[in-house]
């Protein structure tokens, strides 16, 4: 079942030399599955997520031939109704926990406040749910962490806190922008399990933005490879070796393998692109 | 946190000792009080007697020590002009200034923050732009001119509000208040606006620019992505972060409200310490001037101390750093 369908999505920013397109005609659909988006820095991954969330701030402009979420056209949706979607229906974990959490509000309070949109929960219920969510992202001492301010937790813990915020919200669509980049391998596995659980059990659709081609290839159902604002390749799970586009092939070639025989790893040759 | 407070209190005391020295130096370096107190027809004995009576024959350090000792006890000597204890005169005048400063301060803070937030949220609205343009007037017109314009409009032309004085006051203990009578309240309006307008526009413009800056931050974007309401985002997430730098400025501005009261009090013939100070200068009434200087610096230093502590209270990141 299709949750989100995007056709010819464009995000444009004005600049001194006329408008610059940072997302250039992106099309994809997302069901209740795990869609991985990879691509080099600046290729427009985060911007795509923001465009879907309706959070591209002026002077940025978003256009699309089609931008539908749960059968509703997001392009013409009044801001009030869009706001009602954000949070419980669609939500996004931003890239950097250091800037994405409010520095002057305690972590527990920041997780709890999102529950207000679910309405009629008592303060005690909210607290229980908040502690459960922290537990779910494998934070050992939720009571203590809930009382901390964002600057007092590590980057990895901050990422898990942000995911805990999604866990309490249980959105139908979740866009996770590099949610595990600061986590060590074992915690990353656990966090991915939580996301997996949300996808499988609750039927959530997940857009996972990442730099980690291997992780995405192993874990996601489908992969989009972005390059300079465009999708250059769409691959099924485990089909990484079938990649055609020179950019993807170049990326794969530059990854080290377990049975490595090469002395030097090749770098991406941009002259081929 | 505690060591931070202790350190700041220590610094405050040092600052007060230095301003105390400046205040005290006026006795020795500005004019000769004896000249001012005794007329042309004086004998050498009169001069000597008064010199001893006032302790002016002692060495500088001794005099300074005695000055501080007395000042800490609230004793600032005897006014050259009125022949009464300065403390008594100040206490008489203080309520007028403090009430004026309090009303202007509240006016400046409440309206400044409210308009600042409004103009930031409705950044492109017509009303917001009008307010911003009007605020330029508040920043650029000198206080006395604003006072005179207000008097012209509301007292002379419309005749709604009094142009000078405090109106009727009621004595409660040693405190004479204008809050309890209609004429007292009416008399407060124009001077308070005059005194607070500059601070109000300053706070408003600062709140606006800080708020715009904060609204661009990622945590606001993330708050939106989580579906928080505009009210929560603007007033909880954004305003609290905005207040961190704004608090400092507000603190300093409150101090200057009291210091600038001199001008407003002169324009409105407001019987406060500012007017007292102006009159004291005309008569080189050093004890009154020195006491006023000390009073203002205690106020400034006290407010600054409070602001620093408040600052650390609002921004958790400073608590550890301190
Ligand atoms: N406010 C803006 N004004 C103009 N250009 C912008 C703005 N924000 C982003 N861009 C441009 O949009 C492009 C895509 O940015 P985006 O953040 O989506 O990259 P990304 O793929 O997420 O990169 P990374 O992996 O580093 O997070 C970049 O080239 C960036 O320079
Ligand atoms: Mg990004």
Explain the overall architecture.
With 273 residues, chain A is α/β, with parallel strands linked by helices. Chain A has ten helices and eleven strands. In chain A, the strands form two sheets. In chain A, strands 7-8-9-3-10-11 form a six-stranded mixed β-sheet, sandwiched between helices. In chain A, helix 4 crosses helix 5, helix 4 packs parallel to helix 7 and helix 5 crosses helix 7 (155-169). Chain A is globular, with a radius of gyration of 19 Å. The mean pLDDT of chain A is 86. Chain B has a domain at 105-272. Chain B has 13 helices and two strands; from the N terminus they run αααααααββαααααα. In chain B, strands 1-2 form a two-stranded antiparallel sheet. In chain B, strand 1 (170-172) and strand 2 (175-177) form a beta hairpin. The interface between A and B is medium-sized, with 32 and 25 residues. The structure holds adenosine-5'-triphosphate and magnesium ion (MG). Magnesium ion is lined by residues 45-46, 95, 177 of chain A.
Helix content bin of chain A: 25-40%
Number of strands of chain A: 11
Count up the helices of chain A: 10
The termini of chain B sit apart by 7 Å
Strand ordering within the main sheet of chain B: 1-2
What is the topology?
The complex is a heterodimer of chains A (273) and B (322).
Chain A: E1 4-13, E2 20-30, E3 34-39, H1 45-53, E4 61-63, E5 66-69, E6 72-73, H2 79-85, E7 90-93, H3 97-100, H4 107-115, H5 123-136, H6 142-147, H7 155-169, E8 173-177, H8 185-202, E9 205-210, H9 213-219, E10 222-227, E11 230-236, H10 246-253
Parallel strand pairs in A: 3-9, 3-10, 7-8, 8-9
Antiparallel strand pairs in A: 1-2, 1-4, 1-5, 5-6, 10-11
Helix pairs in contact in A: 4-5, 4-7, 5-7
Chain B: H1 2-29, H2 33-37, H3 44-53, H4 60-72, H5 86-121, H6 126-140, H7 143-157, E1 170-172, E2 175-177, H8 182-215, H9 218-225, H10 230-267, H11 273-282, H12 286-314, H13 316-321
Antiparallel strand pairs in B: 1-2
The structure holds adenosine-5'-triphosphate and magnesium ion.
């Amino acid at each position: 079942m299709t949750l989100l369908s995007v056709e010819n999505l464009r995000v444009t920013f004005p600049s001194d030399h006329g408008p610059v397109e940072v997302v250039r005609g992106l099309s994809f659909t997302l069901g209740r599955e795990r869609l991985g988006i990879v691509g080099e820095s600046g290729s427009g991954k985060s911007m795509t997520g923001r465009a879907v969330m309706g959070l591209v701030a002026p002077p940025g402009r978003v256009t699309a031939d089609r931008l539908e979420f749960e059968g509703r056209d997001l392009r013409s949706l009044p801001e009030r109704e869009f706001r009602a979607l954000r949070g419980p229906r669609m939500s996004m974990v931003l890239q950097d926990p250091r800037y994405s959490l409010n520095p002057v509000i305690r972590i527990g309070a920041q997780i709890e406040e999102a529950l207000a949109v679910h309405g009629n929960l008592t303060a005690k219920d909210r607290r229980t749910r908040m502690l459960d969510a922290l537990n779910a992202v494998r934070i050992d001492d939720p009571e203590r962490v809930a009382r901390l301010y964002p600057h007092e937790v590590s980057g990895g813990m901050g990422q898990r806190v942000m995911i805990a915020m999604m866990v309490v919200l249980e959105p139908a669509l979740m866009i996770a922008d590099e949610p595990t980049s600061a986590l060590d391998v074992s915690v990353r596995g656990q966090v991915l399990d939580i996301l997996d659980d949300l996808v499988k059990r609750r039927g959530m659709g997940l857009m996972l933005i990442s730099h980690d081609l291997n992780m995405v290839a192993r874990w996601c159902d489908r992969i989009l490879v972005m390059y300079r604002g465009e999708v250059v390749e769409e691959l099924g799970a485990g089909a990484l070796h079938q990649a055609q586009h020179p950019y993807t092939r170049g990326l794969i070639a530059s990854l080290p393998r377990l049975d490595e025989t090469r002395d030097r790893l090749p770098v991406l040759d941009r002259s081929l692109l | 946190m505690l060591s931070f407070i202790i350190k700041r209190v220590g610094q405050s005391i040092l600052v007060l000792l230095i301003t105390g020295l400046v205040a005290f130096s006026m006795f020795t370096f500005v004019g000769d009080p004896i000249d001012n107190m005794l007329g042309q027809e004086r004998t050498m004995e009169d001069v000597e007697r008064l010199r001893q009576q006032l302790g002016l024959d002692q060495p500088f350090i001794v005099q300074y020590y005695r000055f501080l000792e007395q000042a800490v006890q609230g004793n600032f000597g005897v006014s050259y002009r009125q022949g009464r204890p300065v403390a008594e005169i100040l206490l008489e005048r203080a309520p007028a200034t403090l009430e004026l400063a309090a009303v202007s301060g509240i006016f400046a803070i409440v309206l400044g923050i409210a308009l600042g937030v409004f103009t930031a949220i409705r950044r492109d609205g017509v009303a917001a732009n009008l307010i911003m343009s009007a605020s330029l007037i508040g920043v650029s017109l000198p206080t006395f001119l604003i006072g005179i314009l207000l008097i012209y409009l509301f007292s002379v032309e419309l005749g709604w509000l009094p142009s000078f004085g405090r109106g009727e006051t009621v004595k409660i203990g040693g405190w004479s208040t204008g809050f309890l009578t209609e004429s007292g309240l009416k008399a407060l309006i124009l001077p308070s606006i005059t005194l607070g307008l500059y601070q109000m526009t300053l706070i408003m413009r600062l709140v606006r620019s800080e708020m715009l800056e904060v609204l661009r931050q990622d945590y606001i974007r993330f708050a939106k992505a989580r579906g928080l309401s505009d009210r929560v985002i603007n007033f909880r997430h954004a305003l609290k972060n905005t207040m961190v730098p704004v608090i400092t400025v507000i603190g300093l501005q409150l101090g200057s409200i009291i210091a600038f009261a001199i001008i407003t009090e002169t324009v409105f013939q407001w019987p406060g310490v500012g007017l007292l100070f102006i009159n004291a200068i005309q008569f080189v009434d050093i004890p009154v001037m020195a006491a006023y200087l000390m009073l203002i610096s205690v106020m400034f230093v006290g407010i600054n101390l409070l602001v620093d502590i408040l600052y650390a209270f609002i921004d958790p990141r400073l608590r550890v750093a301190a």
